[in-house]
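In response to reviewer comment 3 from the previous cycle, which asked for concrete evidence that the modeling workflow produces usable outputs, we include below a single protein chain processed end to end. The sequence was submitted unchanged, and the resulting C-alpha coordinates are shown without manual editing.
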Amino acid sequence: MTSPEYGETWVYESLVGTVPGVDVSARTAVALQFLGFEAAILVVAAVYDLQAAVIPGTAAVVVAAIGSWLMIRFSKSVRELPTPAAYRRLLFGSSIDVVLGVLAFVTLVTYLFVVDPGTSEPSLVTSLFGADPPAVAIWLALLVLWDVVYRIGTCWWASLVGLWRALVYEFEPAVTRRYRRADTINLVFAVVQLLLIPFVIGYPLLLVVLGGHVVAVLTVTTLSRRLQ
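The workflow returned the following C-alpha coordinates.
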Protein backbone atom coordinates (compact mmCIF):
# COMPACT_ATOMS: atom_id res chain seq x y z
CA MET A 1 0.00 0.00 0.00
CA THR A 2 1.64 3.23 -1.16
CA SER A 3 1.67 5.66 1.74
CA PRO A 4 1.33 9.45 1.49
CA GLU A 5 3.78 11.78 3.17
CA TYR A 6 4.41 11.37 6.89
CA GLY A 7 1.99 13.49 8.89
CA GLU A 8 -0.80 13.12 6.32
CA THR A 9 -1.93 9.64 7.31
CA TRP A 10 -3.80 7.94 10.11
CA VAL A 11 -1.60 5.90 12.44
CA TYR A 12 -3.11 2.74 10.91
CA GLU A 13 -1.99 3.77 7.42
CA SER A 14 1.46 4.78 8.65
CA LEU A 15 2.03 1.41 10.33
CA VAL A 16 1.10 -0.57 7.25
CA GLY A 17 3.04 1.70 4.94
CA THR A 18 6.27 1.71 6.96
CA VAL A 19 6.66 -2.03 7.68
CA PRO A 20 9.85 -3.05 5.83
CA GLY A 21 9.19 -5.24 2.83
CA VAL A 22 5.41 -4.81 3.03
CA ASP A 23 3.77 -3.18 0.01
CA VAL A 24 0.17 -4.31 -0.34
CA SER A 25 -3.03 -2.69 -1.49
CA ALA A 26 -5.51 -1.27 0.98
CA ARG A 27 -7.95 -4.06 0.12
CA THR A 28 -5.30 -6.71 0.84
CA ALA A 29 -4.24 -5.06 4.10
CA VAL A 30 -7.83 -5.01 5.36
CA ALA A 31 -8.40 -8.61 4.25
CA LEU A 32 -5.26 -9.74 6.07
CA GLN A 33 -6.36 -7.85 9.17
CA PHE A 34 -9.75 -9.58 9.17
CA LEU A 35 -8.44 -13.05 8.40
CA GLY A 36 -5.65 -12.83 10.95
CA PHE A 37 -7.89 -11.78 13.82
CA GLU A 38 -10.70 -14.13 12.86
CA ALA A 39 -8.34 -17.10 12.62
CA ALA A 40 -6.89 -16.26 16.04
CA ILE A 41 -10.39 -16.06 17.55
CA LEU A 42 -11.43 -19.42 16.11
CA VAL A 43 -8.23 -21.14 17.26
CA VAL A 44 -8.40 -19.76 20.80
CA ALA A 45 -12.12 -20.59 21.05
CA ALA A 46 -11.47 -24.16 19.91
CA VAL A 47 -8.50 -24.71 22.23
CA TYR A 48 -10.20 -23.31 25.35
CA ASP A 49 -13.82 -24.20 24.48
CA LEU A 50 -14.97 -20.57 24.39
CA GLN A 51 -17.68 -20.83 21.76
CA ALA A 52 -19.72 -18.08 23.44
CA ALA A 53 -17.04 -15.57 22.50
CA VAL A 54 -16.87 -16.44 18.78
CA ILE A 55 -19.85 -14.43 17.50
CA PRO A 56 -19.15 -11.28 19.58
CA GLY A 57 -15.48 -11.52 18.66
CA THR A 58 -16.29 -11.90 14.98
CA ALA A 59 -18.62 -8.91 15.13
CA ALA A 60 -15.85 -6.80 16.67
CA VAL A 61 -13.39 -7.93 13.98
CA VAL A 62 -15.92 -7.10 11.25
CA VAL A 63 -16.45 -3.62 12.70
CA ALA A 64 -12.69 -3.04 12.93
CA ALA A 65 -12.11 -4.26 9.36
CA ILE A 66 -14.89 -2.11 7.94
CA GLY A 67 -13.50 0.76 9.99
CA SER A 68 -10.06 0.27 8.47
CA TRP A 69 -11.46 0.28 4.95
CA LEU A 70 -13.60 3.37 5.54
CA MET A 71 -10.72 5.17 7.27
CA ILE A 72 -8.61 4.62 4.16
CA ARG A 73 -11.43 5.74 1.88
CA PHE A 74 -12.04 8.84 4.02
CA SER A 75 -8.38 9.87 4.17
CA LYS A 76 -7.92 9.28 0.45
CA SER A 77 -10.98 11.42 -0.31
CA VAL A 78 -9.66 14.23 1.87
CA ARG A 79 -6.17 14.13 0.39
CA GLU A 80 -7.62 14.41 -3.13
CA LEU A 81 -9.31 17.69 -2.17
CA PRO A 82 -7.72 21.15 -2.05
CA THR A 83 -7.50 20.98 1.73
CA PRO A 84 -6.01 23.79 3.84
CA ALA A 85 -2.69 22.83 5.44
CA ALA A 86 -4.00 23.58 8.95
CA TYR A 87 -6.92 21.21 8.42
CA ARG A 88 -4.65 18.40 7.24
CA ARG A 89 -2.27 18.87 10.15
CA LEU A 90 -5.10 18.86 12.65
CA LEU A 91 -6.83 15.85 11.12
CA PHE A 92 -3.84 13.61 10.43
CA GLY A 93 -0.78 15.02 12.16
CA SER A 94 -2.01 15.88 15.65
CA SER A 95 -2.30 12.22 16.84
CA ILE A 96 -5.35 13.23 18.85
CA ASP A 97 -7.16 10.28 17.28
CA VAL A 98 -4.70 8.05 19.15
CA VAL A 99 -5.15 10.00 22.38
CA LEU A 100 -8.93 9.61 22.16
CA GLY A 101 -8.50 5.91 21.42
CA VAL A 102 -6.20 5.39 24.41
CA LEU A 103 -8.56 7.24 26.77
CA ALA A 104 -11.54 5.26 25.52
CA PHE A 105 -9.64 1.97 25.77
CA VAL A 106 -8.44 2.60 29.33
CA THR A 107 -11.98 3.56 30.31
CA LEU A 108 -13.36 0.38 28.72
CA VAL A 109 -10.80 -1.85 30.47
CA THR A 110 -11.62 -0.18 33.80
CA TYR A 111 -15.30 -0.83 33.21
CA LEU A 112 -14.82 -4.48 32.19
CA PHE A 113 -12.55 -5.48 35.07
CA VAL A 114 -13.53 -3.10 37.90
CA VAL A 115 -16.98 -1.57 37.43
CA ASP A 116 -18.93 -4.30 35.62
CA PRO A 117 -18.06 -7.20 38.00
CA GLY A 118 -19.67 -5.25 40.83
CA THR A 119 -22.82 -4.23 38.96
CA SER A 120 -23.91 -7.22 36.88
CA GLU A 121 -24.06 -10.96 37.35
CA PRO A 122 -22.47 -12.46 35.42
CA SER A 123 -20.12 -9.77 34.18
CA LEU A 124 -19.51 -9.43 30.44
CA VAL A 125 -16.04 -10.96 30.77
CA THR A 126 -17.38 -13.92 32.73
CA SER A 127 -20.26 -14.54 30.34
CA LEU A 128 -17.86 -14.68 27.39
CA PHE A 129 -14.77 -16.32 28.87
CA GLY A 130 -15.94 -18.10 32.02
CA ALA A 131 -15.15 -17.58 35.69
CA ASP A 132 -11.46 -18.37 35.17
CA PRO A 133 -10.66 -16.91 31.74
CA PRO A 134 -7.49 -18.07 29.95
CA ALA A 135 -4.84 -15.36 29.78
CA VAL A 136 -4.35 -15.80 26.02
CA ALA A 137 -8.08 -15.29 25.42
CA ILE A 138 -8.12 -12.06 27.43
CA TRP A 139 -4.97 -10.87 25.63
CA LEU A 140 -6.59 -11.47 22.25
CA ALA A 141 -9.86 -9.89 23.35
CA LEU A 142 -8.08 -6.73 24.51
CA LEU A 143 -6.14 -6.55 21.24
CA VAL A 144 -9.35 -6.78 19.22
CA LEU A 145 -11.05 -4.25 21.48
CA TRP A 146 -8.17 -1.82 21.01
CA ASP A 147 -8.55 -2.24 17.24
CA VAL A 148 -12.21 -1.28 17.51
CA VAL A 149 -11.81 1.50 20.07
CA TYR A 150 -8.97 3.19 18.18
CA ARG A 151 -11.17 3.42 15.11
CA ILE A 152 -14.05 4.78 17.18
CA GLY A 153 -11.71 7.49 18.50
CA THR A 154 -10.63 8.29 14.95
CA CYS A 155 -14.26 8.46 13.83
CA TRP A 156 -15.07 10.92 16.59
CA TRP A 157 -12.01 13.06 15.86
CA ALA A 158 -12.78 13.21 12.14
CA SER A 159 -16.28 14.44 12.87
CA LEU A 160 -15.03 17.15 15.24
CA VAL A 161 -12.37 18.37 12.82
CA GLY A 162 -15.00 18.35 10.07
CA LEU A 163 -17.15 20.67 12.15
CA TRP A 164 -14.16 22.97 12.75
CA ARG A 165 -13.45 23.00 9.00
CA ALA A 166 -17.05 23.94 8.26
CA LEU A 167 -16.89 26.84 10.74
CA VAL A 168 -13.52 28.21 9.59
CA TYR A 169 -13.32 27.67 5.82
CA GLU A 170 -15.45 28.34 2.79
CA PHE A 171 -15.10 26.38 -0.44
CA GLU A 172 -16.58 26.38 -3.91
CA PRO A 173 -19.86 24.43 -4.17
CA ALA A 174 -18.24 21.52 -6.03
CA VAL A 175 -15.54 21.16 -3.38
CA THR A 176 -18.11 21.46 -0.60
CA ARG A 177 -20.09 18.58 -2.08
CA ARG A 178 -16.97 16.41 -2.11
CA TYR A 179 -16.28 17.27 1.53
CA ARG A 180 -19.81 16.27 2.38
CA ARG A 181 -19.28 12.92 0.67
CA ALA A 182 -16.10 12.40 2.70
CA ASP A 183 -17.97 13.25 5.91
CA THR A 184 -20.64 10.73 4.93
CA ILE A 185 -17.97 8.00 4.82
CA ASN A 186 -17.10 8.79 8.44
CA LEU A 187 -20.77 8.80 9.36
CA VAL A 188 -21.24 5.37 7.77
CA PHE A 189 -18.54 3.97 10.03
CA ALA A 190 -20.33 5.33 13.10
CA VAL A 191 -23.50 3.56 11.97
CA VAL A 192 -21.54 0.32 11.37
CA GLN A 193 -20.62 0.34 15.06
CA LEU A 194 -24.26 -0.38 15.83
CA LEU A 195 -23.46 -4.00 14.91
CA LEU A 196 -22.07 -4.25 18.44
CA ILE A 197 -25.36 -3.25 20.08
CA PRO A 198 -26.79 -6.81 20.39
CA PHE A 199 -23.81 -7.86 22.51
CA VAL A 200 -24.15 -5.07 25.09
CA ILE A 201 -27.94 -5.15 25.51
CA GLY A 202 -27.63 -6.47 29.08
CA TYR A 203 -25.04 -3.86 30.04
CA PRO A 204 -26.79 -0.46 30.21
CA LEU A 205 -23.67 1.68 30.60
CA LEU A 206 -21.98 0.20 27.52
CA LEU A 207 -25.23 0.47 25.61
CA VAL A 208 -25.65 4.15 26.47
CA VAL A 209 -22.02 4.98 25.67
CA LEU A 210 -22.03 3.19 22.32
CA GLY A 211 -25.41 4.54 21.28
CA GLY A 212 -24.51 8.01 22.53
CA HIS A 213 -21.30 7.98 20.52
CA VAL A 214 -23.15 7.16 17.31
CA VAL A 215 -25.77 9.83 17.98
CA ALA A 216 -23.03 12.38 18.75
CA VAL A 217 -21.17 11.67 15.49
CA LEU A 218 -24.46 11.89 13.59
CA THR A 219 -25.28 15.22 15.25
CA VAL A 220 -21.86 16.78 14.69
CA THR A 221 -21.63 15.58 11.09
CA THR A 222 -25.14 16.84 10.30
CA LEU A 223 -24.26 20.22 11.79
CA SER A 224 -21.04 20.48 9.79
CA ARG A 225 -22.89 19.59 6.58
CA ARG A 226 -25.43 22.34 7.21
CA LEU A 227 -22.72 24.91 7.92
CA GLN A 228 -20.73 24.19 4.76
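The chain has nine helices and no strands. We consider this sufficient to address the reviewer's concern, and the full set will be provided in the supplementary archive.
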